[in-house]
Amino acid sequence: MSAASIATINPATGETVKTFTPATDAEIEATIERAHERFRAYRTTSFTERAAWAHATADLIEAEADEVAAMMTLEMGKTLASAKAEALKCAKGFRFYADNTEALLADVPADAAAVGASTAFIRYQPLGVVLAVMPWNFPLWQAVRFAAPALMAGNVGILKHASNVPQTALYLADVISRGGFPDGCFQTLLIGAGAVEGILRDPRVAAATLTGSEPAGRAVAAVAGDEIKPTVLELGGSDPFIVMPSADLDAAARTAVTARVQNNGQSCIAAKRFIVHTDVYDAFAAKFVAGMQALTVGDPTDPDTDVGPLATESGRDEVAGQVDDAVAAGARIACGGQRPDRPGWFYPPTVVTDITADMALYTEEVFGPVAGLYRVDGIEEAIAIANATPFGLGSNAWTADEAEQRQFIDGIDAGQVFINGMTVSYPELPFGGIKRSGYGRELSGNGIREFCNAKTVWVG
């Protein structure tokens, strides 16, 4: 691997800002051993101690939010406003687990008499060293939503981050250290994907979590399965956004724009397929297209910019190719659809209509500001199209009809259903998907228990 393969490259200009040398085999070995040795002592620390370190880490992130935002914008192109919001969300995540872990991992009593014991309960205990393989699109938050619960549970972490956000990766390990967590609790390794298998097969590594693409998830899951190690996978999504006649169309259209172009359209839980009842299709489409056309595409450091560049040149080219292929097969462009003639990896907010099941756009995830618009005659057809994808991460449905709300909640195949709102991750709620969107959960009590041993205790 060349040094240039791990680098900060400004997506707004294509300029390589800084390159990094990948960790050597000796450095990888030292990192694993340091984590392994640290876990032996760290697991005995109290929730009170860990909570103090987590609060201190949150305070540092919050105080440094402007600098952290500028770093994320430079590395992957999100707007400064969204980058700062991400940093503040990370502080909130650390505080949530600092304040709630003791209760979330408290012993769970069982019916001792029913099992012939004087006492019986479940105790949650940490597993050990967990490898986290993280993506670039929310470079701090997606790593923190692993790190905060893992550290508070008593696990230790090794982070292999995406190769285009090395500065953010190094910052997270640094701020956790400055927050007071003991040396070795959380370490960043600047390595390529080829080094992941060796780390995961190491007997000192207990488990792994991955957020990223389906191929990456398959690779990690295959190795972990061979080694019989637990994993959590959060992969892609092609989330539906359904609009029924009783919906507040103005609110739905405004939210639809935000739901599609958040993070420059590069979010697994961004709404991607907009499924609209025929009775309100024309009215909604007019509002939605107008909202997409009104967005300003440009320099992500400019406060007036709504949509910055895509994070990588290959990602921009893939999005453009998906749109071009659909148009060649008969789809129609309602707005956007043309790469701007400017430096950087920009793509305009785009709405595609007349999509048919034989087009790749019908089932594939589009990781950019491109929306597919579908007309349906009723709720059954809406749910059928919503489920006609190999993914099942988030979903959105807009209706004031309580019977329809219940039908969407029960009928949509997804890890999350949001009614009259857009899918958002919250520390208080489980986050994850089904089908090819992955398995396991992050956040909430469900997430923190993923890397704990639910130990049955029976006392005669």
UniProtKB/TrEMBL annotation:
Q: Does the keyword Oxidoreductase apply?
A: yes
What GO biological process terms does the UniProt entry carry, in alphabetical order? tricarboxylic acid cycle
Protein's recorded name: NADP-dependent succinic semialdehyde dehydrogenase
Family in the record: Belongs to the aldehyde dehydrogenase family.
Entry-linked InterPro entries: Ald_DH/histidinol_DH, Ald_DH_C, Ald_DH_CS_CYS, Ald_DH_N, Aldehyde_DH_dom, ALDH_GabD1-like, GABD/Sad-like
Name the CDD domains for this protein: ALDH_SSADH1_GabD1
Q: Give the keywords, sorted.
A: NADP, Oxidoreductase, Tricarboxylic acid cycle
Q: Which GO terms describe its molecular function?
A: aldehyde dehydrogenase [NAD(P)+] activity; succinate-semialdehyde dehydrogenase (NAD+) activity
NCBIfam families from the xrefs? PRK09406.1 (NF006915)
Under the heading SUPFAM superfamilies, the entry gives:
ALDH-like (SSF53720)
